[in-house]
Specification:
With 582 residues, the chain is mainly alpha-helical. Helix content is 65%, strand content 3%. The protein is built from 17 helices and 8 strands. The chain has a two-stranded antiparallel ribbon. A two-stranded antiparallel sheet has the order 2-7. Strands 3-6 form a two-stranded parallel ribbon. Strand 4 and strand 5 form a beta hairpin. The relative contact order is 0.15.
C-alpha cells in the first residue's frame, strides 16, 4: 500500500489549528477593543457635559444610550456572522467601521468650529448660560458616536464566539477548557478596561480629546491587523443559514399543524436523516417542554402531502430544529432576569463618575481623573479571575463533577446576590458623602469635598465580583446551550441583556425623576437624592433575584448528541491533494 504524503501533511496542518495559540489572538484583540470602547464609556459623560454643553442628566442618558446601542446592535452582527460571513470576516468588517467612528469624533474634537464653546469651568449655578450645540455639530457627534457603537456591536457578537470555536466542547475536558476560555477572556478584557480608564482617560484630560479619539482609532486599526495575522491558526465556522429563519419556520409550521394530534410514538416525529448526521449536523434530543412546538415536526399523511406543500421547510421541521427554537424560548426568561443588574451597572458607571468629581481624588501631588475610578474594581478582578479559574474551579469540580466547577446558572445567581449588596453599599456611601458636604457648607460649591474618592471603591469592588460571576456565566451558558448554527446569536443575546440594562437605565432615571418630584433633577449631586435612588435599585434588585430563581429552577439544560465533526470546519490548505494508491 502506497503512502499519501500530501494527505498526511494536510491532516497534520488541520491538527495544528485552534487551541490556546489561536485564542491568544482573540484575547489580545478583545483587550484592545475594550480599551478603546470602555475609555469612552466612562469618560464621554465629562466630554458631553464639559465640551458639548449637555446637562448632567442628558450626558448620563446619552452615554447609556450609546452603550445600549452597541450591545443591542450585536444582534445584527450575529445575524451576518451566522448566516453569511464567518466570525473572522465579521470582526474585520465591523472593526473598520469602528475605526471610522473614532476618526470622525477625533476630527470634531480637533476643530473648535465643529463644537460649541466649552463651558466646563462655568460654576454649577450658571450652567444654564452655556451655549448649546447646533444641529450640524450634533449630527457630527451622533454620527461618530453611533458609528463606534455599530462597529463595536459586530465585534462583540463575533469575537467571543471566534475564540470559543478554537476549543472542542465535546466531552468533559473540552467543556472545562471552554469554561476556562471565558474566564481568561474577561481577564484580558479587564486589562484593556484598566488601560482605557487610566491611560486613555489621562490622554483625554491632559493631551486633548482629539488625541484620545485619534489614538483609539489607531489602536482598533492595529488590533484588526493583529487579528488577520492569526488567520492561519483559526478554526473557522461555516455559516449554516439564518437561525432566525429556522426559528420562524418552526413557529409557522407549528401553527399550521396546530390541529394535528401529536403521535403516541415520538419516533414518528421528523428527525435529521442519517446522511445529514454523517456530515456533522448537530442532533438535539427531544425535551418535554413546549410540546405545542413539536407539531412542527409532524409529517402529514400521503393524501395531505399530495395536496399541499406538506414537506416544505415552512410546514415540516426536524426535531433538532424544533429543539433549537425551544432553547431560545427557554433562554428568554434568563435574559430578562439579568437585565436589571445591568441597569444597576449602568448607574454605577455614570453617577459614580459624577460623584467622584465632587470628592478628593488626590494621592499626594497626583490627582486621579474621575473617569479612572473604575480601575479600583478592575485591579480586584485581575486577582479574582485567576483565583477563581485555577483554585476554586478545580476544587469545586472534585465535589460536583461539573467541568466548570458549578453550573452556569448557579454562578449567575451568586453574582446577582452581590449586585444587591453593591447597590445597598452605594446608598450608604452616598449618604455619607452628602453629610460631609453639608457639614462643611459645600452643598453649592464646585470645589472638592474633604472625602476620599476611595470610598467609592467599596461599591465598585463588590459589583466587580457580581460582574465576574454573572457576565462570564452568561457568556458560557449561552454559548454552551446554543446549537452550532447560532453561536454568534447566543453571544448577541448575552450582550442584549446589557443593552436592555442601559436603555432601562435611561427610562428608570426619567421615571424616578418624574414620580419622586426630582430626586435626580438638579445639576448638583449635593442637592439630589441619589442615595434614595440607590436604595430603590437595591430593593428592586431583591425582587429581580426572586424572579431569577424561578426562571433558573424552571430551565432545562440542553440534551444533545454531537457527531464526529461538530460545528467547526477547519479550512483546508489550498493546492492539489493526491489520492492513496493501493
Amino acid at each position: 500500500m502506497g503512502i499519501c504524503r500530501n494527505v498526511k501533511t494536510e491532516e497534520k496542518q488541520l491538527q495544528k489549528k485552534g487551541g490556546t495559540r489561536a485564542a491568544l489572538f482573540v484575547y489580545v484583540v478583545a483587550g484592545i477593543d475594550t480599551m478603546a470602547f470602555i475609555s469612552k464609556g466612562v469618560s464621554l459623560v465629562t466630554y458631553f457635559s464639559g465640551y458639548m454643553n449637555f446637562s448632567l442628566t442628558k450626558s448620563a442618558n446619552t452615554v447609556t444610550n450609546f452603550m445600549g446601542t452597541a450591545f443591542l446592535l450585536s444582534l445584527f452582527g450575529a445575524f451576518l456572522s451566522d448566516t453569511y460571513f464567518s466570525r473572522f470576516k465579521t470582526c474585520v468588517l465591523f472593526s473598520i467601521i469602528q475605526v471610522l467612528g473614532f476618526a470622525l469624533l477625533g476630527v470634531q474634537a480637533h476643530f473648535s468650529q465643529l463644537r460649541p464653546f466649552p463651558c466646563k469651568d462655568v460654576p454649577l449655578s450658571q450652567n444654564d448660560r452655556c451655549e448649546s450645540a447646533d444641529a450640524g455639530q450634533l449630527a457630527i457627534l451622533y454620527g461618530g458616536v453611533y458609528l463606534v457603537a455599530f462597529g463595536n456591536s459586530g465585534v462583540k457578537a463575533a469575537l467571543p464566539s471566534l475564540g470559543a470555536d478554537q476549543f472542542d466542547e465535546k466531552g468533559p475536558k473540552g467543556a472545562a477548557k471552554l469554561s476556562s476560555y471565558f474566564n481568561w477572556l474577561l481577564f484580558f478584557i479587564t486589562i484593556g478596561a484598566m488601560l482605557g480608564v487610566t491611560l486613555f482617560v489621562w490622554i483625554g484630560d491632559n493631551q486633548g480629546w482629539d488625541w484620545s479619539f485619534g489614538i483609539c482609532s489607531v489602536a482598533i486599526g492595529l488590533s484588526t491587523l493583529l487579528l488577520t495575522m492569526g488567520k492561519q491558526f483559526y478554526r473557522n465556522n461555516v455559516p449554516k443559514g439564518s437561525p432566525l429563519m429556522r426559528i420562524s419556520q418552526v413557529l409557522v409550521a407549528a401553527f399550521r399543524n396546530r390541529n394535528l394530534p401529536l403521535p403516541q410514538n415520538k419516533e414518528d416525529l421528523h428527525q435529521i436523516r442519517s446522511e445529514e448526521a454523517e456530515n456533522g449536523i448537530e442532533i438535539i434530543q427531544r425535551t418535554d417542554q413546549f410540546k405545542c412546538l413539536d407539531r412542527a415536526a409532524i409529517p402529514r399523511n400521503n393524501h395531505e402531502a399530495s395536496t399541499s406543500s406538506a414537506h416544505g421547510p415552512w410546514s415540516l421541521c426536524t426535531i433538532s430544529q424544533v429543539e433549537e427554537t425551544k432553547i431560545v424560548v427557554r433562554m428568554l426568561p434568563i435574559i430578562l432576569s439579568t437585565v436589571f443588574m445591568n441597569t444597576c451597572m449602568a448607574q454605577l458607571q455614570t453617577f459614580t463618575i459624577q460623584q467622584s468629581m465632587t470628592m478628593n481624588r488626590k494621592i499626594r501631588n497626583f490627582e486621579i481623573p474621575g473617569p479612572s475610578i473604575p480601575v479600583i474594581p478592575q485591579v480586584f478582578q485581575l486577582i479574582m479571575i485567576p483565583v477563581y479559574d485555577r483554585i476554586f474551579v478545580p476544587i469545586a469540580r472534585k465535589f460536583t463533577g461539573i467541568p466548570s466547577g458549578i453550573r452556569q446558572l448557579q454562578r449567575i445567581g451568586v453574582g446577582l446576590v452581590f449586585s444587591v449588596v453593591s447597590m445597598a453599599v452605594a446608598a450608604v456611601v452616598e449618604s455619607h458623602r452628602k453629610s460631609v458636604a453639608i457639614e462643611h457648607n459645600m452643598v453649592d460649591s464646585s470645589s472638592q469635598i474633604p472625602m476620599s474618592v476611595f470610598w467609592l471603591g467599596f461599591q465598585f469592588v463588590i459589583f466587580s465580583i457580581a460582574e465576574v460571576l454573572t457576565l462570564i456565566g452568561l457568556l458560557d451558558f449561552f454559548y454552551a446551550e446554543s446549537t452550532s448554527g447560532m453561536k454568534s446569536l447566543s453571544m448577541a443575546i448575552t450582550w442584549c441583556s446589557l443593552a436592555f440594562g442601559y436603555f432601562t437605565s435611561s427610562v428608570v432615571v426619567s421615571v424616578v425623576n418624574k414620580v419622586s418630584g426630582g430626586w435626580l433633577g438638579n445639576n448638583n449631586l449635593n442637592r439630589d437624592k441619589l442615595d434614595y435612588f440607590y436604595w430603590l435599585l437595591a430593593g428592586v434588585s431583591v425582587l429581580n433575584f426572586g424572579f431569577y430563581l424561578l426562571c433558573a429552577s424552571w430551565y432545562k439544560y440542553k440534551k444533545r448528541e454531537l457527531n464526529q465533526e461538530g460545528p467547526i470546519s477547519d479550512e483546508k490548505p489550498k493546492g492539489k491533494t493526491e489520492m492513496c494508491v493501493v
